[in-house]
Amino acid sequence: MKRSLLMFVPALSVSSVVFGQAPTETPDLEPPAAAVQSITAPEIGGHLNFLASDVMRGREAGSPEAKIAAEYLASHLKAIGAVPLGDPERGRRSYFQKFWLEAATPSSEGAELSLTLELDGATRSIPCKLGTDYMYAPHGVVAGEFDAPAVFVGYGRVQPDRSIDDYAGRPDVKNRFVLAYRGLPDGRPGNDFFSSQAKSQTAREKGALGLILIDPPGASPARPALPMSPAEVGFDRPRVTLGPAPAEIPVIALSDPIRDVLVASLGLSGPDVSPPRMDAVGDLRVRLVHAATREPREDRNVVGYLPGSDPEKKKELIVFSAHFDHEGVKNGEIYNGSDDNASGTSGVLEVAQAFGAAERPARSIAFLWVSGEEKGLLGSKWFADHQALPNGWKIVADINMDMISRNDSMKIGATPSPDHKEYNTLVVDAAAATKAEGLEMIFDSDPYFGRTDSYNFAAKGVPVIFFFAGLHDDYHKPTDDVEKADLEKAARVARAAFRLGWKTAQAPEPPKKVEGKP
Question: Assuming Cys at both sites, which of 65, 113, 266, 360 could form a disulfide with 309, CB separation 3.0 to 4.6 Å?
Answer without folding.
Answer: 360
